[in-house]
Specification:
binds uridine-5'-diphosphate; 2 domains; six-stranded parallel sheet; alpha/beta; Rossmann fold; 14% strand
């Protein structure tokens, strides 16, 4: 039986897989534990879903743990998240103590696996305090920040820095996010799984079924933004752009999202979206269950243009997903979207609803550009943003860190 990684040969070629297997051999048996705060919803869960089984397939012993918390904990971590992305938030000493206490309760449950691991990768701020509790750790601990912390609200970063600086290394998605920390920092952009339900090819009949299910008109252009209902994703700004385009073209808009279990703000944002949509029958606000991968896949394929008008964005997997489906992306000129959208070649970077509307109108009037930009977009993803490149970066980084520890052992 062929291994799961072998299935990717048709997409990336055999040389890429050979290199991954060679790296895997050097790390055979390495125990790596990933820890985050939600099993579903959002980009981190999306990545760990494939990364853990593929690391195992390459010979490592990988596992994925999730910390649990009550609603208050997730309100606090959401404020930490918002603060790191630049919002002025209020976090009291008591809030930080609750944050630490919840981490401590989780640590008691996870202690054996965290103490024994050779490498622990802590994703984002929610579980970051675990390191401080693990005084009998054997392995290297890496803090992996997925969010845009290029301009954090200083008081929040000041406290989080005291936690993250104790790590052996940190990983950021792009250079702009890196911080002054006393350990090696690595740049690893995220990626997508081209064979997952979210991204694999679909039968035309299945795509059409999704079109009818959501009442979308095949004869009119479709704009699609898939995102959690989060203010940084600016869904209300997308509606403003749609209204400007609507003055000259009969477009339809899909805003599809669901909640992540670690995101308590979604409900309020959804209410704002419904108000802005004002019962317009051509604005389809879809609340999708977390298992809707194929529906999202089909919606992205049905779109003429993918929108991701974020005002802050760690990376934006929805951008990668849209590009992989051969769509131009009109995206906010921020964070990881800038890494992916090559302005004027694979889509457009915009700062305002007016800017977004201007670019959407241009594409709708120059329809051949939609196909041209979409094809380039797909190749950019094949080259830079598929999971094989991501795995290679992680394995290489682990080799570097283990070499580093051997050198230190030698010095002692
Ligand atoms: N997603 C989903 N259902 C939704 C909204 C988003 O499955 O209702 C997926 C989306 O397809 C993407 C991921 O969640 O794979 C979102 O990752 P991204 O980096 O775009 O944003 P994040 O939510 O991590 O800020």
């Amino acid at each position: 039986m062929s291994s799961p990684i072998a299935a990717y040969e048709g997409v990336v070629g055999s040389a890429v897989l050979r290199q991954l297997r060679q790296l895997g051999e050097k790390l055979t048996g390495t125990r790596i534990v990933h820890v985050n705060s939600t099993r579903e919803g959002g980009g981190v869960a999306e990545i760990l879903e494939w990364m853990v089984p593929l690391m195992n397939d390459l010979g490592l012993q990988a596992s994925w743990e999730v910390i649990h918390g009550d609603p208050r904990f997730f309100e606090i971590t959401k404020s930490i998240h918002n603060g790191l992305q630049g919002h002025n938030v209020l976090l009291s000493g008591k809030d930080w103590r609750i944050y630490e206490d919840v981490n401590a309760r989780n640590f008691e449950r996870l202690r054996p696996v965290l103490e024994e691991a050779d490498v622990v990768v802590i994703h984002d701020p929610q579980p970051a305090h675990l390191l401080q509790l693990c005084d009998r750790r054997k392995g290297k601990w890496i803090w992996r920040a997925h969010i845009d912390i290029s301009r954090p609200f200083r008081p929040v970063w000041k406290t989080l820095r005291t936690i993250t600086e104790k790590y052996d290394a940190s990983i950021f998605s792009m250079a702009e996010f890196a911080q002054l920390l006393p350990h090696p920092q690595f740049l690893v952009p995220p990626s997508i799984d081209p064979l997952s339900e979210k991204n694999r090819e679909l039968e035309p009949s299945e795509i059409e079924a999704v079109r009818s299910e959501y009442g979308l008109d095949p004869s009119r252009p479709l704009l699609v933004q898939i995102s959690r209902f989060d203010r940084f994703k600016d869904p209300v700004g997308v509606i403003a752009a749609y209204r400007l385009v609507r003055k000259v073209a009969p477009v339809q808009l899909v805003l599809a999202g669901g909640g992540a279990t670690d995101d308590p703000e979604g409900k309020a944002v959804l209410e704002d979206v419904m108000e802005a949509a004002d019962s317009d029958p051509d604005i389809h606000v879809l609340l999708l269950p977390s298992s809707s991968h194929r529906a999202i896949n089909a919606l992205q394929r049905l779109s003429d243009i993918v929108i991701q008008k974020s005002t802050r964005e760690g990376f934006g997997l929805t951008v990668t997903e849209g590009m992989w489906k051969g769509k131009p992306v009109v995206g906010g000129d921020v964070g990881g979207i800038r890494l992916q959208v090559v302005n004027h070649h694979t889509g457009f970077l915009v700062n305002t609803p007016e800017g977004a509307a201007h670019r959407i109108r241009y594409l709708l009037h120059n329809r051949s550009r939609i196909g041209e930009m979409g094809s380039i977009a797909r190749e950019v993803v094949r080259e830079h943003f598929l999971l094989t490149r991501h795995l290679r970066d992680y394995l290489t980084l682990m080799l570097v860190l283990s070499k580093d520890s051997r050198e230190h052992a030698f010095e002692v």
